[in-house]
Amino acid sequence: MILLVSHDEDDHLAPMLAELASLGSEAVVVDTSGLPGRVAVAAEHGPQGDRRRLRLASGDWLDLDRVGSGWWRRPLPPPPDSRITDPAEAVWAANETYEALAGFWDGLPIAWVSPPKAIETAMMKTWQLPAARAAGLEIPRTLVTSDPGEARAFVDRLGLGQVICKAFSATEEHWRETRRVGQAEYDLLDRVELAPVIFQELVPAEVDLRVTVVGEEVFAAAIHSQELSYPLDFRMFLDWGAGVRMTATTLPDDVTQSLLHLLKAAGLRYGAVDMRRTPDGRHVFLEVNPAGQWRFVEEVTGQQVTRAMARLLTDLDATRHPRTAPVTACC
Description:
A hairpin with a 5-residue loop joins β4 and β5 (about 60-65). By secondary structure, the chain is α+β, with helices and mostly antiparallel strands. The two termini are about 15 Å apart. A 5-stranded parallel β-sheet has the order 7-6-1-2-17. It has a 5-stranded antiparallel β-sheet with strand order 14-13-12-15-16, with helices on both faces. It has a 4-stranded antiparallel β-sheet with strand order 8-11-9-10, covered by helices on one side. The chain folds into 3 domains: about 1-115 and about 315 and about 325-330, no CATH class; about 125-140 and about 205-290, D-amino Acid Aminotransferase, Chain A, domain 1; about 140-200, Dna Ligase, domain 1 (2-Layer Sandwich). The protein contains 9 helices and 17 strands.
């Protein structure tokens, strides 16, 4: 059985369920926003061994010994319980839930795509860049700082207009596009004291690259960002590919092998990598998102990333359990 830790708001879930069904794979979806009440965990440990179970929203218990592989796909955090009215008690309860669940998921003897702790570590930009360099990838000169003097010195060394700044994360509620540091931005550098910022040398681009790695399969797509009115950040034009030209492409063998080496070093079985191909043919690593989107590329290029992920999960499950009749459930 394959455990899909996801939720209905993730538009990757339904296509994944369809692909798994086409392969005859048994899958169950767990939405962690139902924990710890509507959905529950039970972990028993003793001299004779361990037993780990999940109570689904349906009320049925799932024995996790039946699970061979798992997809850790942007799970939602448990919401505050309205029955707890004291703020301090609510914080304590939330921490208790976190402590129990973190150990629960990481303790499961299943093949994750990818392990939760590995995803958490690999998300960190200050971990990624040295690891990418060690894997043989070219990286841009980068500064992460909350010190205005350091920020100004970095920009002074590279020159106004030759540095971009970007946030560690961007959500619909807190959107931050990648920006070139010009005079207006330079004059505001004292504000980095409020929160650290990533400063990076501007890498000239022939195209941006989104490289999706699924196990040992590598799907490279060229995103023709330089055709856009704001070529620094193609995300501003994404609407399932509308307005952004994307084409399947290939990578040099050494770059492909370096990317596979990076993910292996990170303990990841999946990664969405952002790179730039420069006008002189260099391939520069920018970042890897261990839980990144791929559907926006797949919809345009036709690259079968969802099928590759379904096959990977199915193959990993088969290493622990023989194939059984497909039964897909959701909680």
